[in-house]
Amino acid sequence: MGLAEFETPTVLRPYQLLCVVRHPGEEQPKGQSEKLRRVRQAMREYPDMPITLVCNVGDVYLYQDPGTADDSPEGADYNRKRDLDILHLLALAPGSTLPARALFLTLLKRVASVRGICGYDTVTGAGWEGCPRAASGAYEKAHERGIDALIPPRTQEEMAREKRESLAALYAAEVVPVRPHILMCAVCQYGGGTRPPYPEDNLPELLELVLNRKPDLLIRMARGADWMMCAPCPKRVPKLNACVHILGSCGLSNEKRDLDLLQKLGLHFGSTMKARDLFRLILERIPTTQDVCRRDEACVCPSVWWDTCGESNRAQGSPNYEKGRAALLAKLGLP
Ligand code: SF4
Ligand code: SF4
Question: Which atom of ligand 2 is nearest to the CA of 254?
Fold first, then answer.
């Protein structure tokens, strides 16, 4: 699988997501084992490869109807219903394309069992017998194993090495690239009592450096999960400089947070400032996390815009940010 294939979405029926999750050794619908085996293998190499979900729904979604070639043998209406049941649980439209990791994390969060989706408690008539493998328990066991069985996580060794190398680079740097909104996360961490050494990112180390040793260190506003701060994070994808926190698509909400903060500060990606001046600007202009971090009522789980900070900021800004802001204003000698 090369880059071109990575950029071209793999087209699947919604029910095939469930078949991919099942144990790789499990029998698959006739003729599909090879296709699904290739998808599983490709996901291990490219966990964020795009997948497009298509199904036979007609109506105004006719443009994406794939035909019945991939139907399993239980009947056309059963196939239509099973696909729609899954899309409904994922809150996705037919034809939606998402990165595989985001799609499978969402599926595992929303579908713990195939009962009522692939098979029914009562057979109400011909064509509604369901899939003969639905009651095997294979999907439910795979659900318990979770996403790591499909997509291997970053190893402890890799993250520890990245921590060492990125910290060395930070301490030697004249200019530190940072994605903008995580400077606010640094304030939340500070208010919550996080201090170096912190294994999962380098923000506490940056703040300690700026407060105690290098106030004039230059910080440049960078896009994405930039290496110098995010290198050791379990949720960073080095190949894509991407953040796959929460349901695999947190990078999207984070990019908006970056841009919202830049707009409030009157800065841009690429803007460079002395660290203390930049922190002063943030603390003065951003009294609460709510305007940058909150996600409104439309972004309920499993929306690609949903995350825990977005949800918790709905009612009030982060108390840790307010605590950290007050402590840092005092440390920087500001009112
Ligand atoms: S509330 Fe906002 S600033 Fe604080 S940790 Fe969450 S995303 Fe970061
Ligand atoms: S990769 Fe994402 S979750 Fe990890 S530190 Fe960077 S922005 Fe935060």
Answer: 7
